[in-house]
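PROTOCOL LOG
Step 1. Enter all chains and additional molecules of the complex.
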Amino acid sequence: MTGVSARSVTGVSARSERTGFVPRVLIVPAVLGLALLILPLGALVLRVEWSTLWSDVTSPQALAALGLSLLTGAIATVVCVVLGVPLALFIARSGDRAAGALRALVTVPLVLPPMVGGVAMLFLFGRTSWLGGALAEWGIRIPFTTTAVVLAQTFVALPFLVLALEGSLRATGTGYEQAAAGLGAGRWTILARVTLPLAAPGLVAGIVLCFARAIGEFGATALFAGNAPGVTQTMPLAIYTAFNGAGVSQGTAVALSLLLLVTAVGVLLLVRAWRVETPR
Amino acid sequence: MSTVDAVTPRDSAGLDASVVVRRGGFVLDARLQAAAGEVVALMGPSGAGKSTLLGVLAGLTGFDEGAVRLHGRTLDDGPGRRTPPSARGVVLLGQDPRLFPHLTALENVAFGLRVRGASKAAADEGAAAWLRRVGLHDHGGRRPAKLSGGQQQRVGLARALATAPAAILLDEPLTSLDTEIAGDVRALLHRQLAETRTTAIVATHDAVDAVALASRLVVLEDGRITQSGPVRDVLAAPSTRFAAAVAGLNRVVGRVDAGHWRAGGLVLAASTSHLTGGSAAVFQPGDVRIVDRPPTGPGEWEARIVRLEQTPAGVRVRTADPDVAVDLPASRAAGLEPGSALTLAIDPGAVRFLAA
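Step 2. Run joint prediction.
Step 3. Record the structure below.
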């Protein structure tokens, strides 16, 4: 409406309308921040031993670790969506006080060192606990299995999805849901055709953050799932092993890091391309 | 619930809602009725409970006592037995039509048809027909953000009526539109409500909406219905200050004593025999004149200026003791100042007396 016509008047007004009134000097810390994020990755790329890169990244152990990372990361993300979307919905539709309390609970794994999370999960699912003991009687053992990897990743990644989606749901409010209900839509229809599509930006952002966090997860996995190649050794653990491995050159670690970096960026770009399709 | 017994029950077709909502110190206790196909205007000051009442009818707002019946069907029978919004067939269309921003205009209108089980093709066809009825057949592919406020309201109306609702509730539907667009949408609303014979409640603060859209007017003040009846009758004989203000009239409550009606410094001859005790004088602000001498008899009084309000036609002078508004052309208002005194006069023939 008015915004559209004003934007098309002149290039100058369009420019100031877009840039707003940020103090110009803030460009300095902004660039420093960007440098802090980018330069280490540049340093990593500089240390790549290109001669052995291909054999390093195609070694059976590297491919196994990459495959395990992608598989567990994907499963953890699906679990986060299945559990996190309902959780975000209930937090977003709670009263202010309840929502604040629930949000604080969800945030705990974010502020906790992941290793502490790993120890805690070990205590919960270990044989000595009531839950671990009960599971053991059914013949189910979780610690130091691939399941443990997924659980550890879910533990650290779930808050990202819940918080991103909850913010989006809360900002949209319930007005459109009320309109849909008045038109005869039931709860499931409203969820699928109104609530989630309107929260799509938050959901996509949450999924991206969630998957990225799951792929990079190290501390909780190391303690709760261990470092067994092919079973629980994900990329971060493989990289750590390569760095500490006696007599092994750091080139392998660097190559694996590069592989993880490229994979992660690839997934991000893929999701971004999908995101462009989503409205709003 | 004393109000319930006082009203004669109508036939079962139409809307009959009788509800009590308690919110802290505020109590809404109202019975609202509309015959099938009737459009009822609901007017009241801000905070009178109009939106709360519409929310109850739409099933969005809880209530403490009462029942809501629509076309012979009991939607709510007490606070514990309520039909969910999706199963009532009641559409609430507010100031913001709440068009789904991720859907096109056509998809918005088709939404209600789709959830009723229509195939995509059938829903699209029905939606296109409705967009044509509201004059937007060539805007079906646009998202709401690309539509003007008036166009959005038209799409909202099409989306609501496409579901053939049992009742439609309009909450200030024209308030956010500028005057000319509001006139267009008002005419469209009137035509479509009449053609579809949809039972409708229109909450509005504008008497123009009530006159143009509704056959009956219900005045809601401080949670209670203070007056109801045919729109023109209510506006001609307002029984409260608010209703008088809506109708653009002065309503001054006074007492009849020995053939004279008195309110503060204003005395009028009241020969009508049926007037006794308290009664209200109703007259147009434009019928009050300023005279440049002290008052000499009935129909003339000395008033004190409280406030001057600029109006498109001139100046509205608010005076005290009694509270009377006077409309003057701008040229007559020169030299008037708040706090100063002046002599006002009203022709007895311009005054009607109502029981207070």
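Step 4. Note key features.
Residues 1-9 of chain A have pLDDT under 50 and may be disordered.
Residues 60-92 of chain A form the longest helix (33 residues).
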